């Protein structure tokens, strides 16, 4: 058979974002280089609280921003033998501490049936019932679930009192009645050393709600140093870093999650140049991460580089058409550019996807504002 001499067809043209940012060529991007750690620490057995109820029941502010493990990138890497206690990454040969593996809860097996029953009650939002089932249990998972259930029950009652006293848009002096007891118990556990990273996370939230911000920062630093993969703890710590001096004085271990935290904190503090540099370095490792791409677009928007940000958001929507995360920022960009057609298309899309999410309400309100329908805009922001 004669050989096939037909010319090879040319490759398809790249999108605008792929031309400006080579890392946006998602379908052909090379896999990230592995992050090396001690053998056996690639996929540790995560505690039940991160796998189940915690993800679905954190405070709303903690859920407003998703953890960075999004998109095509994965934090689970193949391992090769390396120095014990260190984890080298491609970020300029930086050495990171290895991720600690939580200790097994020996007391968990004793009350496993009670814990599973309590977790079922928690998933049904019966928080007081959850705490009652776990009374007297001393396992760390049981202690965390009981304390977190009490905290959530107190927050629920506080919101009810706020609505009863001042209405849904008013303010009141309602407080979480469980804070005092929780602070006393968690402080005792911390003093005796019988506390894990998740109870430290909850203790930091309790201290913050009581106004002890300095101690709350210290406790949250202990939590993220003990277990760096709890992104909600990083976000609570970020909310307490109101200046660059506070941020620079944190005693954080050099784990690679610290890079995500510092980039996010710099963006929050409007240190846009520093944030952009960190996210671009992270993009060199997590080449297919939608989260990092969205954060870069947010930085570009904050720096008023609207065209670059527009290209990135456009590419994100092309690859993930039902995305709602960060699309409120994109709607602000389209509003600033007076792109009514694109904003109308975006508002229609999120309305069909998840119309009651806060991001969706902001997008729809921006559309109404651009069209001059201010009454509808006000009603939409009220829903948000």
TrEMBL record:
<keyword id="KW-0802">TPR repeat</keyword>
<dbReference type="GO" id="GO:0031145">
    <property type="term" value="P:anaphase-promoting complex-dependent catabolic process"/>
</dbReference>
<dbReference type="GO" id="GO:0005680">
    <property type="term" value="C:anaphase-promoting complex"/>
</dbReference>
<feature type="domain" description="Cdc23">
    <location>
        <begin position="111"/>
        <end position="297"/>
    </location>
</feature>
<feature type="region of interest" description="Disordered">
    <location>
        <begin position="36"/>
        <end position="91"/>
    </location>
</feature>
<protein>
    <recommendedName>
        <fullName>Cdc23 domain-containing protein</fullName>
    </recommendedName>
</protein>
<dbReference type="GO" id="GO:0016567">
    <property type="term" value="P:protein ubiquitination"/>
</dbReference>
<dbReference type="GO" id="GO:0051301">
    <property type="term" value="P:cell division"/>
</dbReference>
<dbReference type="Pfam" id="PF04049">
    <property type="entry name" value="ANAPC8"/>
</dbReference>
<dbReference type="InterPro" id="IPR007192">
    <property type="entry name" value="APC8"/>
</dbReference>
<dbReference type="InterPro" id="IPR011990">
    <property type="entry name" value="TPR-like_helical_dom_sf"/>
</dbReference>
<keyword id="KW-0677">Repeat</keyword>
<dbReference type="GO" id="GO:0045842">
    <property type="term" value="P:positive regulation of mitotic metaphase/anaphase transition"/>
</dbReference>
């Amino acid at each position: 058979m004669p050989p096939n001499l037909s010319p090879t067809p040319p490759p398809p043209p790249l999108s605008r974002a792929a031309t400006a940012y080579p890392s946006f060529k998602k379908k052909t991007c090379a896999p990230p280089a592995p992050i090396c750690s001690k053998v056996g620490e690639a996929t540790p057995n995560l505690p039940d609280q991160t796998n189940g109820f915690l993800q679905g029941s954190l405070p709303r502010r903690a859920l407003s921003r998703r953890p960075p493990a999004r998109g095509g990138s994965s934090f689970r890497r193949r391992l090769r033998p390396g120095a014990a206690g260190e984890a080298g990454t491609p970020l300029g040969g930086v050495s990171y501490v290895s991720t600690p593996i939580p200790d097994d809860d020996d007391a968990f097996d004793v009350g496993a049936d009670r814990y599973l029953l309590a977790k079922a009650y928690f998933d049904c939002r019966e928080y007081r019932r959850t705490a009652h089932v776990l009374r007297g249990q001393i396992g760390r998972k049981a202690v965390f679930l009981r304390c977190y259930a009490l905290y959530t029950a107190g927050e629920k009652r506080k919101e009810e009192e706020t609505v009863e006293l001042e209405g849904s848009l008013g303010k009141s002096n309602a407080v979480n009645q469980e804070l005092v007891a929780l602070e006393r118990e968690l402080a005792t556990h911390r003093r005796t050393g019988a506390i894990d990273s998740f109870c430290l996370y909850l203790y930091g939230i309790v201290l913050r709600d009581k106004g002890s911000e300095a101690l709350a920062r210290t406790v949250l630093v202990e939590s993220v140093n003990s277990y760096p993969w709890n992104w909600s703890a990083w976000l609570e710590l970020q909310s307490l870093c109101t200046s660059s001096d506070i941020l620079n004085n944190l005693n954080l271990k050099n784990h690679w999650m610290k890079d995500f935290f510092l980039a996010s904190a710099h963006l929050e503090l409007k240190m846009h140049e520093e944030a952009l540099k960190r996210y671009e370095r992270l993009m060199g490792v997590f080449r297919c991460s939608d989260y990092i791409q969205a954060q870069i677009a947010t930085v570009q928007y904050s720096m008023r580089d609207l065209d670059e940000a527009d290209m990135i958001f456009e590419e994100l929507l092309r690859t993930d058409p039902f995305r709602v995360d960060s699309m409120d920022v994109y709607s602000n960009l389209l509003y600033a550019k007076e792109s009514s057609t694109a904003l109308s298309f975006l508002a229609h899309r999120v309305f069909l996807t998840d119309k009651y999410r806060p991001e969706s309400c902001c997008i729809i309100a921006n559309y109404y504002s651009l069209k001059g329908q201010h009454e509808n805009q006000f009603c939409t922001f009220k829903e948000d």
